[in-house]
Write a structure and sequence with these properties.
Mean pLDDT: 81
Number of domains: 1
CATH architecture: 2-Layer Sandwich
Helix content: 25-40%
Order of helices and strands: HEHHEE
Structural class: alpha+beta
Shape: elongated
Largest sheet: 3 strands, antiparallel
Number of helices: 3
CATH topology: Alpha-Beta Plaits
Strand order of the largest sheet: 1-3-2
Radius of gyration: 24 Å
Distance between the termini: 44 Å
Strand content: 25-35%
Length: 122
């Protein structure tokens, strides 16, 4: 009788574990990239300073704040899992119609997040 009770308890625990593993298995890690344009400025040095400020700003945001900037509603992202993997800035140089040369920082952000696996993606 005692042995039957232990076997029943073991089967119950195993079944509960398997169901929670299936639920936890409904997510995958996704890595993506986004390009963010900074303000147009009149010097290359100012554009790089602006780019550095952009990187520092994004690195100081928490996951939920990052998700507002980086993910869309269709990503099915876990908003508390968004994190920046890498960020780089380059500066574009433009000649405006009036002959002025202007500079714009462009930040490329690589980020990752947990996303829900929908049945149609499996």
């Amino acid at each position: 009788m005692k042995r039957l009770l232990n076997l029943k308890t073991l089967l119950t625990i195993t079944a509960a574990s398997l169901s929670s593993m299936a639920f936890a298995g409904g997510y995958q890690w996704t890595t993506d990239e986004k390009t963010i344009e900074g303000h147009v400025v009149s010097s290359k040095a100012a554009a790089y300073r602006e780019g550095l400020n952009m990187i520092m700003y994004f690195e100081n945001l928490d996951s939920r704040q990052l998700s507002r900037f980086l993910t869309s509603q269709t990503d099915e992202a876990d908003r508390s899992s968004v994190s920046i993997e890498d960020a780089t800035v380059f500066v574009d140089e433009y000649l405006k119609r009036n002959g002025d040369i202007v500079y714009q920082p462009i930040m490329n952000v690589s980020y990752s997040y947990r996303s829900l696996i929908s049945p149609d993606r499996q």
